[in-house]
Design a protein that fits this description.
Layout (H helix, E strand, L loop, with lengths): L5 E4 L5 E4 L2 E2 L5 H12 L4 E3 H9 L7 H23 L6 H4 E4 L2 E4 L7 H17 L3 H12 L14 H27 L3 H14 L4 H13 L3 H19 L5 H12 L2 H7 L13
Antiparallel strand pairs: 1-2, 2-3, 4-6, 5-6
Length: 280
Amino acid sequence: MGDTAVDIEVLGALSAREHGISITPTAPKPRQVLALLALHADRVVQVPALIEELWDDEPPRSARTTLQTYVLQLREHIGEALAKAGDDTVTAKDVLVTLPGGYRLDTRGGRVDFREFERQAGAGYRAMDADDFATAARRLREALSLWTGSALADVTAGSRTDLEAKRLEESRLCALDQRIEADLRLGRHRELLSELTVLVNKHRLHESLHGQFMVALHRSGRRGEALSVYQRLRTTLVRELGLEPSAALSRLQRSILVTHPETTAARHPEATGPAVARVG
């Protein structure tokens, strides 16, 4: 990995490096091509998918020829990187491969950040299923640390990359939700308050995060504020979606009204889990 392969980063700004040397173009259209190839690294991306990414449903007559030009520009960057590294064992065409019907960016075992994220998050989810909350919190925190900003933050996304970026962002939010849940299970409610304050303002319709915030506040002796969080969410849901909060969140609200802080999560573990997640 690393110095002898292609390393890819999409969990933030787009970056592709051959032998540690950047091969990321600055021009918007070649960046889009690279972004889609990077999102499917080591797999073939069909020409129609690349054309759709670049021009949506209004491709010019010269679409295929223009796409070939962008591929050549990417290969020039790759070739320059290989030359700087003094590597004559592979060519640019070995890295950005032409195959029947499409192209493949061959990482040769390089680091791909979103796959590392998925691997670490998967380990965290398995630890959650095994009630190993300390391991879950650690692995999910490691997974989330790979993010440096919004997915493909500096790419003008077409329909394909936009869809993939949204999928990655949803995966990020799921991992964050579960990491917070693990921290709550470990009694770290006070440490979570500032983070959850920001998150519920950013994700105004996300019931799971609001439920976690309610639990953290209640356990910290701030019962009134916990109930206010519920009321604000309910007002927003009714006004914007015409929906009442889920049954699980309503049960959590009622439990806060009648129980002591330390018993809320124990009696209603589902209140901060996936059952109440509604993402807006």
